[in-house]
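A.,

Following up on our hallway conversation. Structure tokens first:
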């Protein structure tokens, strides 16, 4: 069992009120239930560190109240607490609880183990983070770029714990192309073998669940972006793709449009 080492940045009454997601059932819901009596302090961030079973420390931040909560995964080699800014997170937090964290090797979290890791290792950490933050019940998993690939695989491992899945500019990578580009696990701060991880995703059976899936694609991200990301529509019978004007970092360029699409999944 891991221990939460909290460095709460909010007032003590809020900490005692308990902002965790107490959902433990397998039923899936996409109805947000933000408290209409919510006070301004409830939108101030709760920030701290989680101690994993391995002994490593992971830095996290949560803001807002409500269910289903949203867990956000940042792009490859990026920490969620510094790369996913308030223009993106705060509007979501007005509707429900939103959490993100720095994966091992990024941001304020500890270094990863000095060995080859795959997407399964990342999902193992995500599972621990979700349990410690009270997100073990059905939650919205959302990721940007490489974070989208991560939440897709994590959702496939635990479909009963997913209320909805959101991919923001997540590409379906060709393992052969990644291998040709010479990706090696020692060359990235997370020590992830992206070639092997892409094989895992490429061999994944679909559909992976009955929850809603939102695929957010940019018009200017790169060649074949729209067609490439359409691949993820097979993840669920309740999938839709929306194309927004902008580049790869849509959550920074047009955060209000991305937020609006995600909130549709909660209505």
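Then the amino acids I'd put at each of the 267 positions:
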């Amino acid at each position: 069992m891991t221990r939460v080492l909290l460095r709460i940045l909010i007032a003590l009454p809020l900490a005692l009120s308990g902002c965790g997601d107490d959902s433990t059932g397998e039923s899936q819901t996409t109805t947000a239930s933000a408290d209409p009596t919510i006070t301004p302090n409830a939108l101030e961030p709760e920030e701290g560190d989680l101690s994993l079973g391995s002994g490593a420390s992971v830095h996290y931040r949560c803001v807002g109240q409500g269910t289903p909560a949203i867990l956000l995964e940042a792009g490859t080699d990026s920490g969620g607490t510094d790369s996913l800014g308030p223009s993106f997170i705060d509007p979501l937090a007005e509707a429900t609880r939103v959490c993100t964290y720095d994966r091992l090797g990024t941001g304020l979290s500890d270094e990863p183990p000095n060995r080859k890791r795959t997407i399964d290792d990342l999902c193992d950490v995500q599972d621990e983070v979700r349990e410690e933050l009270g997100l073990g019940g059905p939650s919205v998993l959302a990721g940007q770029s490489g974070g989208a690939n991560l939440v897709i695989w994590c959702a496939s491992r635990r479909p009963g714990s997913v209320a909805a899945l959101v991919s923001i500019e997540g590409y379906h990578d060709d393992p052969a192309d990644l291998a040709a580009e010479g990706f090696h696990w020692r060359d990235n701060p997370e020590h992830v073998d992206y070639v092997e991880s892409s094989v895992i995703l490429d061999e994944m059976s679909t559909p992976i669940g009955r929850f809603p899936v939102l695929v957010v694609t940019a018009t200017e991200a790169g060649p074949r972006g729209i067609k490439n990301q359409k691949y993820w529509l097979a993840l669920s019978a309740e999938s839709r793709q929306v194309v927004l004007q902008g580049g790869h970092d849509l959550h920074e360029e047009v955060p209000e449009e991305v937020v609006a699409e995600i909130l549709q999944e909660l209505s």
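The radius of gyration is 17 Å. Curious whether your intuition agrees with the design.

B.
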